[in-house]
Amino acid sequence: MPDGLQIVLVLAPIFLGTLCRSTFGFGDALLAMPLLALSIDLNVARPLVALNSMTMAGVIIWRDWHNVHHASAWRLALSGLVGIPFGFLLIGWLDERLVKIILALLVTGY
Fold this sequence. Notes:
84% helix
C-alpha cells in the first residue's frame, strides 16, 4: 500500500473520531477503532485510539475544569480504572477476527 494512502487511512478515522467526540462528547473510539482496524493492526490501532482519546479528554478537562461536577466524577473515574484494564485484557486475549466482528456489531447497533 502506498505511504500516502496509508496516512489517509489512518488520519481519516482519527479525524472522524475527534469530530464525533467534539460534537457529541463521546463516541470517538466507537467510530475510529473499527475504521482503523480495517487498515492497520489492532495492536497499533488500540494504543493510537487510546492516546488520541486521552489527549482530547485532557484538553477538555484543562479548558472546562470549572464545569466538572466533582461529586459524580469520582465514581466515573473509579469505574474507568476497573473497566479500562479489563477491556484491554479482553482485546488482547480474544482472536483479532472476533474483536473486529464485535466492533462491527457495536458500531452497527450504535
